[in-house]
Write a structure and sequence with these properties.
The chain has helices spanning about 70-85, 95-105, 115-125, 165-180, 200-205, 215-220, 230; strands at about 20, 30-35, 40, 55-60, 70, 190-195, 235-240, 260-265, 270-275, 280-285. Helix 1 crosses helix 3 (about 115-125) and helix 3 packs parallel to helix 4 (about 165-180). The chain is built from seven helices and ten strands. The chain folds into two domains: about 75-245, no CATH class; about 245-293, no CATH class. With about 290 residues, it is an alpha+beta fold. A hairpin with a 7-residue loop joins strand 1 (about 20) and strand 2. The strands form four sheets. A three-stranded antiparallel beta sheet has the order 3-5-4, with no helix packed on it. Strands 8-9-10 form a three-stranded antiparallel beta sheet, with no helix packed on it. It is globular and about 60 Å long. It starts with 18 loop residues before the first strand and ends in a 6-residue tail after the last strand. This is Putative type III restriction-modification system.
């Protein structure tokens, strides 16, 4: 038996969701108040048991079974909401100015709730007052080389149509402007690297270059106030394809103007860097000794 709902869209894209359809196989959809918890469903054909702990919890049969509740995500959502309600305690003056600018009434280019929450979540994990993050432990990537430092990778999962490029611009502006305001603060960087899947996307993402000024996404979508644009241009946003990290010969002077390659020895697959003097910063590559140099 199949079921239909007369009103599939319940919420405005500009506000936090307040209702959702509770859907289970074999049951009629039920309208519930509040926001749907973050749930992930395993593939039907898969037999792999997922690790639980702080990150996942198997849902009960009368809720979202056989799905897993993303307990860490739901916990962070709750804390971010309270942090937002208290006007973002712990953030820098630069960050607070940006948050107020993005949230102000009367914006011509209104931001979706999903866009604002994605950016708020990253800022929360980096800048919020420590008591808000108490008990929240983000898993780290473990490097194969034990001499390297593990790092934390923060991911924003966003639906098709949520305009992710706007979120990229907001995060780039947040990082660059904070670094320009305080060069000693290691939490931020004034160089932002964006990796994209193909040439078409790479071309589209050129809007993120602060040097485009009023034609950049920061102004056309009203993400950065005009008086901060000069500071934003002190940073760099490099947009490139993932192919740059493929196994290849180190230096290609036809492609890289006035390139100089620096090889680090004593590694089976050594790290190499091609410095492009026009761009002004170094791009990592991999160099394999078996290849012709």
């Amino acid at each position: 038996m199949s079921y239909e709902v007369n009103e599939p869209i319940l919420n405005s894209p500009f506000d936090e969701p307040s209702q959702y359809w509770f859907i289970r196989e074999g049951y009629e959809p039920e309208l519930k108040e509040g926001r749907r918890p973050a749930i992930v469903y395993p593939p039907r054909e898969g037999n792999t048991e997922w690790e639980l702990g702080q990150v996942l919890k198997l849902s009960s049969p009368d809720e979202f079974f056989p799905g897993y509740e993303m307990t860490l995500v739901n916990r962070i959502r709750k804390e971010v909401k309270e942090w937002r309600r208290q006007q973002y305690p712990g953030v820098s003056r630069t960050t607070l100015e940006l948050l107020e600018y993005w949230n102000r009434e009367g914006r011509e280019h209104r931001l979706f709730f999903a866009q604002k929450e994605a950016v708020e979540t990253i800022i929360f994990l980096i800048e919020s007052r420590t008591d808000f993050r108490q008990g929240i432990h983000i898993p780290q990537d473990t490097p194969i080389d034990s001499t390297l430092k593990a790092f934390i990778r923060c991911a924003c999962k966003m639906a098709t149509g949520s305009v992710k490029i706007t979120v990229m611009g907001m995060l780039a502006a947040w990082s660059i402007l904070n670094k320009v305001a305080d060069r000693s603060n290691a939490k931020f960087s004034d160089i932002v690297l964006i990796i994209c899947p193909n040439i078409t996307i790479k071309s589209r993402l050129q809007e993120l270059n602060p040097d485009n000024g009023e034609a950049s996404l920061y102004r056309t979508r009203d993400l950065v106030p005009s008086h901060l644009m000069d500071k934003l241009r002190r940073g760099k946003v490099l947009v490139t394809n993932w192919h740059i990290f493929e196994k290849r010969v180190v230096a290609d002077t036809d492609q890289w103007e006035r390139a100089a390659a620096y090889i680090i020895d004593n590694h089976p697959a050594t790290a190499a860097f091609v410095k492009n003097e026009r761009l002004g910063f170094t791009i990592p590559r991999l160099y394999y000794p078996s290849e012709d140099s």
